[in-house]
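Model the whole thing, not chain by chain.
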Amino acid sequence: MSQRVLDVFFRHKFLIVLPLVILALVGVAASLSRQTTEYASSANIWTQRTPLLASRLGGQGGAFTTPAAHQATVINDLLRLQSFRLTVGEKVDALAGLDPGSQAQAVREGTAVFPSGVSVLTIRHVDEDPARAQGIVQAIIDAYSETFNRTVISEADTAEAFYDERLDAAGVELDAAERALFDYQGTLDPIVLADPAVSDPELAALQDDVRRAERDYDELLGRLQDIHLQRDQALKGRDLSFQVMDPAYLPASPLVTPISDLVALPIVGVLLGISASVVVLFALVRMDDSIRLPAEARRLGVPVLAVVPELGRRRQRSWPQDFVRLVVAASRGLLGNVR
Amino acid sequence: MLKETVFAATGVARRVTGRKSLSGAVVTPDLVRAVISRNPEFQRLDGILVGLAETCLNPAGRDAVQVIGICSAVKGEGKTTVALGLATALARRGDSEVLLIEGDLASPTMAEDLNQNQTAGLVECLRLEEALEDAIKPAPIQHLSLITAGQASEDPISTVGNSNLRELLRALRSRFRYILLDMPAILEREEAGRLVELVDGVILVVAAGKVSKEVTESGVAAIGRDKLMGVVLNRARTAAPVWLSRIISSDGATPVS
């Protein structure tokens, strides 16, 4: 059987190898057709938690989430929103010729936002146009910053109103405590008041009230000042919890396609081709039920007296050989006629 | 050398003329000399035919044979070529006279193949139109004689069917040590079955890759295992490289080149 398979293979080698060659070429062609010249642009952003405001865009994240991971989650969520993508698309000059739907699609496709460190967030976009890759990354940063700052300002305004009201209340409370202490001190004997060895429980309680009221007032005042600071930073676009460290750049050279991507389809084509060739080989073996080998003749149950090899097989000439022969014969005939 | 390579010469003539059949292949001495001298394949073939002749002289498990039929299942498997080659090999031994009879009466080709005059042959002898002595012609090889078919018979069955052929063979047995009968295809011509009855043994020529195994088995059955001496695998050729075939071969046998 093995000799028959071997014989059939070499007898029909071109037919058998044909599927392998075709499918391998198809794999190569498919691989080449998938290769496009793409450019990647990215930006790195420094993120950190802010203790100033309890809530931020999307909250502060859990205790087990890094600032970068939290911000990446927020930006990815925003990119799922059509409105945010449209906002980004409007900011990219290179997308100006496209309709809003195509702009939003261009923003989403090829964009990746991921933490590349505890506090470092990377926004990356791959596109056939290097300017578009850079523009989309920068537009995402701008749109997110605007959204972020708008939220900060809004929260700061709310917090300011809240703390202003509490600060007023704390001021009133402080005034009342100081007045009560002053009034009580007026009722005491100056000698007793001046003697530190004499303890007056009521006096001590009033003094504690004043100190607590002062502490509350100072704390509220400090928070209010922090809120003012953060709002000013947000208004100026310089929020400390979202700082662009490496801005989006214009890629100078296209991405290098990984070898694995280049060879994957050709390898699949070769494997399929080998399978197809094996199928063709065994189909040919099955279809040929003639006697070709001495071992097959012996299976007839009679002696094999001799095996006469095929002799004098006419070799197939290729068309170039025929053409050369024709030219030579024509030349000789022409020379003969001339002479 | 020239006379010893009739078989090769017919093959060469066939190659030169580009015809698959021996019919019409003209063997000339110049042609033989020019091609054989530079073709070692024919030397090798000669060895194979000598080995076949030795096998026929000493058949395993059966009595010695004198009249050997060369047959095939269907037409075009090379039985005439093998018959001619075997006759040549037997004659070259030089110790006995050999006669080759063309038994395909319906479509004779041997006279033309061997450049013999198309005169009286087996048909005329069986019709008692010619004497046996006139039908026996010397071949280009010493110790080898020929009886060609003569004029094509329109009714070969009845020509073979009469008792004259049996009588003719009886007469020839006393004159020739070996008589080879080139028979028609056993599955295609009815008279082939009658010829099988007249010979001592039959060699079945099987052309490699030409007919299916079932057809060949039918040919074996039609001849009968008691008369069948064995098969000659003709035109055997493996497309695989010899060295690779030798590695693959389970019994270590030298593959067909």
